[in-house]
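Q: Here's a chain of 137 amino acids. Please give me its 3D structure as tokens.
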Amino acid sequence: MRKIFLLFCLVVIVACDKYPFLPDNYSEIFLGRWKWFGTSTANSNSYQSADSAGYTIKIIFDRNGKYHYFKNDTLLLLTNYSFHYSHSYNGINHYLLRLDKEAEGFDVYLNKFSMTDILVIAGTYPDSGESYYLKEP
């Protein structure tokens, strides 16, 4: 009986490693690496492209529920994340992104442009700007 229990524990450990958990039901569509290409600000009606910024930003949502934030390839933030359905606007589902180390959540949605996924992240307060990311292969 003890051998069966140990075998069962080994199978569970291997299965969990092979199929890590997702923190919620919505994370699957956001998984992967995303490269920042610009930010718009609502108050000043301006846009800053990644090319003009002089730095790069990449974010990763991994299968283990970890959010990675890189600036110029330096990891600045590693924390847990979760997505929660918020609302639908013009047929696009919006989600609330929660990061463990942030007090406020973020409004997040995917927009399709020429068959390319564009991740949009904005503050949840009115007139907040939006940052745009392209999915990396």
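Q: Can you summarize the key feature?
A: The first helix runs from residue 2 to 18.
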